[in-house]
Specification:
The structure is a homodimer of 220-residue chains. In chain A, 50% of the residues lie in helices and 10% in strands. Chain A has 220 residues and is an alpha/beta fold. Chain A has a six-stranded mixed β-sheet with strand order 1-6-5-4-2-3, sandwiched between helices. In chain A, helix 1 packs across helix 2. The longest helix of chain A has 18 residues. Chain A starts with 11 loop residues before the first helix and ends in a 6-residue tail after the last helix. Chains A and B meet through helix 1, helix 2, helix 5, helix 9 and helix 10 of A and helix 1, helix 2, helix 5, helix 9 and helix 10 of B.
């Protein structure tokens, strides 16, 4: 089994710490200096994607990280546009602060209403979340239509309670870039991955980074 | 709401088809010619990541796509290393062919055994899957340690039934590249993303592409 000789011997508990060391070193090599306020969020996204492009692509509204951390620490719940993002979020830490996770995508009435109104299920899910009438972290990793619906509701004054934070990181080719630009133009706390890239894994990584910061353990 | 003017008007049902058109056009612009046998798998990974690097990074063993399609069509089940990959796989289509989804990561005894033996939970999960003694599609999108454990078991003759297919696309910085090289050196059908990139979303996208090909509808 000589192929195994090439493996680094790193204990399971140390893999993540070693990964973050490598990320920090390579960012330094590239001459990238991250805003200390958002540094741990950016690094966790790079950790989850192995894609250093995020060092430049992630856009934070003023104090977005601190605002998100404070909201989650105060028991704010999270809504996602996909089950995959929901699966990736650390529910244990979220629950520790009193927060829960909402995801409406599989609800039968969501599919029916989406079909009837010619909208995506993800857009309807954002309406369902808004109807809860409580502050939420909206984590959108897949559907630009979800971001567009949030924008429309906010612009039309149709959201009784504004989002605590919008994590806007859908991925793809149709209206993805545009949907993110819409969110960046809003006066609502947001963390957005500009460009085409993103994903449910990126959305989950951002929410988890905020949760770990809220726990005082940025690599929990 | 002038920001909305920039959006393309694409009906929900047409978003994916339009995305694949854009991907095909941009691959052509880049002069990339994909192997027709694996083309739809590669395109679905680009669709899920917006990352054209996968056009060059995905490595297929001989007839890996056809082998995976045939296995799933025959009712082969899938095991994943994370709940996130499990969440992203189309269980409806998988079940249509008789296949199920295994994921052992949350089992209490997995965590206990991992701690006791100094292994990762993901590595133990691969042992649990092997102990089922049936052909499986092993979809690994996160943990290189899962791939390493598969390699060790195969090399030591400890797998009573060989994998139908290994989807080896973990992401990260510690032993990720090396774990994939190990799998590429095996005489076992595999689809591997060479390099650091990958992810649970990529693992799910590959399995879904195979499922849609098995259904005769590559964009179902």
């Amino acid at each position: 089994m000589s192929g195994l000789d090439k493996l680094q011997h790193v204990r399971p508990a140390e893999i993540e710490a070693r990964s973050f060391e490598i990320i920090s070193a390579e960012l330094a090599e590239r001459g990238v200096v991250l805003d200390p306020e958002n540094e741990l969020v950016v690094k966790r996204v790079i950790h989850t994607s192995a894609d250093f492009e995020y060092a430049g692509a992630l856009e934070f509204s003023e104090h977005a990280t601190a605002i998100g951390v404070e909201a989650l620490r105060g028991g704010c719940s999270v809504v996602t546009d996909t089950k995959m993002a929901a699966a990736g979020i650390n529910k244990r830490v979220l629950a520790k602060f009193g927060g829960g996770l909402h995801n409406f995508i599989s609800d039968a009435d969501v599919a029916a209403e989406a079909k009837e109104r010619g909208l995506t299920r993800s857009a309807i899910c954002m309406e369902r979340a808004a109807a809860l009438e409580k502050p939420l972290v909206y984590a959108v990793g897949n559907a630009p239509t979800a971001l567009v619906r949030l924008y429309e509701m906010l612009e039309a004054g149709e959201m009784p309670v504004a989002p605590a934070l919008i994590v806007g990181v859908p991925v793809g080719f149709v209206n993805v870039v545009e949907s993110k630009e819409l969110i960046c133009g809003l006066d609502v706390p947001h963390i957005v991955a500009r460009g085409r890239k993103g994903g449910s894994n990126v959305a989950a990584a951002i929410v988890n980074a905020l949760l770990y910061l809220a726990s005082g353990n940025a690599r929990e």
